[in-house]
Design goal:
Two copies of one chain form a homodimer.
Chain A (H helix, E strand, L loop, with lengths): L2 E7 L2 E3 L2 H8 L7 E4 L6 E10 L4 E9 L6 E3 L2 H7 L5 E2 L10 E4 L4 E4 L3 E4 L2 E5 H7 L6 E6 L5 E11 L5 E5 H6 L7 E4 L2
Parallel strand pairs in A: 1-14, 2-5, 6-10, 7-10, 11-13
Antiparallel strand pairs in A: 1-15, 2-6, 3-4, 4-5, 4-8, 8-9, 11-14, 12-13, 12-15
GO molecular function, one term (chains A, B): acyltransferase activity, transferring groups other than amino-acyl groups
Catalytic activity (chains A, B): propanoyl-CoA + phosphate = propanoyl phosphate + CoA
Keywords (chains A, B): Acyltransferase, Metal-binding, Transferase, Zinc
Chain lengths: ~190, ~190
């Protein structure tokens, strides 16, 4: 049985170095609050505010380290609250997505694009993927047995020797399926 | 193909006559803002505030007509915001569920129980159910084809000649599956 631990991602933001500078000041380095399941990734001690046409969130967690693009990942529930209409996208694929205003302690950034609802996906270490015959980019179905059971379809496989086995869904998906971080899903095909 | 129209229920409250009186005053009658898909049911013009240990919602829509129990139906996202931990339940089955404070223009009610996350369900008119061989209380699986496709399992069939064909899910489920009211699901078994 192909059991996958599930992690539920709350809204968060990735920032490029230039934006960290504009939001936190010259030479600022993100601090590590907590390591995440993927090697080298961490929840930073720092948060920013994001401001949409209809609403704002004052404390959006930054995930580090800095990336080559800035990207805000929110749930659809969050999107309605902010008043933006982001598409469901894989991380990094931000062309044509909405922008948002980001406010830090030392300045602001008007992001021109980069707001997405993250597509559900599974990180596989190369060895896990090989063992189970799973290819990078393959679409999978994952069943969860809870008080609100669902089968998630179109779950994107991402395979790398830099990854640890973990399925990532957002808070809407977690709540809709009665899941919490650490629960387990089963790949059904 | 067994196609089912889907309705997404935002947080709402049902009230018993005694509570309408305490919240809105002696002899008060709910007004009809909009008829709902189920015959005789309506969104009332009136709203109340609900106040939990951690947060509050100021404008929770009342659905009419009055019922024999008062019941607040919220999403799990809402439950976290209020600071309550309701179970997933069928409407009307409120024994042992958390309570909540309800505030109206003329008074307050401390509900002792009645907060639920509604179990996903389909209303079938008796004729629809007969045609498709579906029994009251049967558990069904419903697939939706969207940019976030899922199969909802444990969807409860409710059959009555008072019902119109409609599947009811909450905002977490709708957002997790990329659905809006009026979209269609397919019963897969």
């Amino acid at each position: 049985m192909k059991q996958i631990p599930i992690g539920i991602s709350a809204r968060h933001i990735h920032l490029k170095p230039e934006h960290i500078t504009r939001l936190f000041g010259e030479g600022y380095e993100l601090t590590v609050l907590k390591d995440l399941s993927q090697p080298g990734q961490f929840a930073a001690g720092e948060t920013v505010a994001v401001v949409g046409p209809k609403g704002r969130f004052d404390k959006v967690r930054i995930l580090g380290p800095a990336r080559n693009i800035s990207q805000l990942e929110i749930s659809r529930t969050d999107a309605f609250a902010l008043g933006v209409n982001p598409p469901v996208r894989e991380s990094g694929n931000i062309e044509g997505t909405p922008g948002i205003k980001i406010v830090g302690p030392k300045g602001e950034v008007e992001l021109e694009e980069g707001v997405i609802v993250a597509a559900r996906h599974i990180h596989f270490h190369t060895e896990d993927a090989k063992k189970w015959g799973i290819e990078d980019k393959q679409r999978l179905r994952v069943r969860v047995e809870t008080d609100r059971p669902v089968i998630f379809e179109d779950v994107i496989a991402r395979v790398s020797d830099q990854f640890a086995l973990d399925m990532h869904i957002d808070t809407d998906e977690g709540n809709a399926a009665g899941l919490k971080t650490g629960d387990v899903g089963i790949i059904v095909d």
